[in-house]
Amino acid sequence: MKTLIRAAAALALVIPVSAHAHRAWLLPSATVLSGKDPAVTIDAAVSNDLFYFEHQPMRLDGLVVTAPDGSKIEPENASTGKYRSTFDLSLKAPGTYRIALVGNNLFARYKENGEQKRWRGKPENLAKEIPASATDVVVTHAQRRLETFVTSGNPDEAALKPVGKGLEMQPITHPTDLVAGDEAEFKLLLDGQPAPNVEVEIVRGGIRYRNQLGEIKVSTDKDGVFKYKWPEAGMYWLEASVSDDKAEFKEAKERRASYAATLEVLPE
Amino acid sequence: MRILLSFGLTGLVAAPAFAADLEISIEIPKLDVAEYHKPYVAIWLERPDQSVAANLAVWYDVANKKQEGDKWLKDLRQWWRRAGRNVTVPADGLTSATRAPGAHAIKFEDSHAALKALAPGEYQLIVEAAREVGGREVVKIPLQWPPEKGAALNAKGEHELGTVAVTVKP
Question: Which of A:6-25 have CB within 8 Å of B?
């Protein structure tokens, strides 16, 4: 028994504590819209099952909405509740909108009086929030991008231009033009460069009503491209992450860049 | 979906000088449901590669009081993806009001703007119906345009569409 506990404790130190324990997501009320000035409501949450509000809201700091002309627009009616945040977008111009929740934080593990502790926050707060007596401090730069896409009228691509920072997805197939039975193709970029050999996990929503998760893992090729043929219609979540030594902050040795997107696949 | 083919004799007697025409009859079924709205319907011709060759008709809530009729056009999913999102509505000669249950005939002569530009070849007539708080259905009928001889073709929907009948005359 004792051995088991010791083994478990040792294991716990090796496994990085990460956002991986839960899934973070954005959920749009619709991704394909017609008519004049349509609106969408978008929910943001962290949960185990997709897409249910059951754990924590995603905070909306870091929300960046790019309009079809490349300009940034502001959300309306934003609020954060117990299990989810929500906001509306008025799609005043036709075209494709990119909705992103961007996080640029530091994550630290340290010991205080022999006790293992963790901290997550803005880089400027690290020094004041971790006690001076802390030892074994390991700081990681956590760079996160959560996205979804909606289109009013005809899909276009101006809002999809790569940001060039962190891990992101450059659509080859338009992200609001996905149909069950079709194969979609996307490219992962890390700091604007193709990200080869990265594993991408793809999960269809509606987990609560089935017994098996049915997650699919695909890998990007040497050009950073991955392909997936949608087996059926639904709201899908995909996620990828990479670690390297390109932390943006001097306090951190390692960077963990993650990307997740919610994509809607419609029936033929 | 059944496709019934029957060739008439009209082709044998029609003089080439006469304009070819395409007559389509679409049956909107009467449904016993608590909340009924007349369906949105799109009718078009597509090429073998599924691209749209001709938009023929779109029936939607053109006179919606709040001018929100076009908000639901995307529910004609296939039409919306292949053609609708590139079309400005309302459009003369294309869009009109939704139709009540019953059979509705529409006729196109080859001088019609949508047909006169068509290259001779194989096409599919597609009829897509989507009903508010109801379902959606697509019925397809392969045909040749311009027709070499007269033909009557039909197919039957199971949910949102009844019989779709096409008569082509050279």
Answer: none
* A60-93 per-position pLDDT tens digit: 999 999 999 999 999 999 999 999 999 999 999 9
Please indicate if any CB of chain B lies within 8 Å of the CB of A177: yes
Write out the H or E segment, with its range, that includes residue A241: strand A234-244
What is the identity of the amino acid at A251? E
Give residue-wise pLDDT tens across range A192-230. Answer: 999 999 999 999 999 999 999 999 999 999 999 999 999
| Cα distance between the two ends of chain A | 56
Tell me if B70 and A153 make a contact (CB, 8 A cut-off): no
The region that residue B86 occupies, defined by phi over 0 for left and psi between -120 and 50 for alpha, beta otherwise, is alpha
A38 vs B: CB within 8 A: yes
Q: Assign B19 a pLDDT band (cuts: 50, 70, 90).
A: confident
Mean pLDDT of chain A: 92
Chain Cα centroid distance, residue B88: 18
Q: Which one of B67, B74, B78 has the shortest CB-CB distance to A34?
A: B74
User: Domain of B17?
Assistant: 3-169
The number of folded domains in chain B is 1
> Residue A224: CB partners within 8 Å, gap ≥ 6?
A187, A188, A189, A193, A194, A195, A196, A198
* Domain ranges, ordered by start, for chain A: 23-266
Distance CA B143, CA B127 (A): 13
For residue B32, report the phi and psi dihedrals to the nearest 5 degrees.
-95, 85
